[in-house]
Amino acid sequence: MPAPRRFLAALPLLLIASAAAAHTDAEAGGFVSGLSHPVNGWDHVVAMVAVGLWGAFLGAPAIWLLPVVFPLVMALGGAAGVLGLPLPMIETGIALSGVVLGLLIAFAVRAPLWVAAVIVGVFAVFHGHAHGTELPEAANPLVYGVGFVIATGILHIIGIGFGFLAGSRPGRIAVRTLGVAIAAAGGAFLFGLA
């Protein structure tokens, strides 16, 4: 079975699997909290899946570069949040990430690589800062951050997996439709409907 089909066959297992945790977040030092936090907020899920999906749509080298840029810049935004550095309109920036990335996918926008990296990086700052300021007091920021970055990477991989669908005409339609759904979800967050 080709890799894209194996991934798509395994995807339902990834989506329904829950993290096994025998300890509270404080006892786990923040790793479990960091690992689970991105997948517990749909505003973050749609944006992180969109990064992988857009990267896959754009092809090499964006397929790997965008999912690397996002967590690296997100970690910097998280550090700024932990340090208490102010960033205005955080929730608006997070919601707009879904809207903008979804529309870029829906309209099949082929931005130059550096433009795509800047767009992804700007939104990563908002996502990282939000989680840095929401860091559980008992959590170790470094351990929490490692868990958070791993979960982000998994969401990017899921987006890339959906991007494999774009190899056929029906697949391209499905990917663009998913872009519309991501933009709609971002709009719902933006206007407080979700």
TrEMBL record:
Entry keywords, A to Z: Membrane, Signal, Transmembrane, Transmembrane helix
Membrane spanning residue stretches: 45-70, 142-167, 173-193
InterPro entries for the chain: HupE_UreJ
Signal peptide positions on this chain: 1-22
Highest taxon of source: Bacteria
UniProt protein name: HupE/UreJ family protein
Species this protein is from: Maritimibacter fusiformis
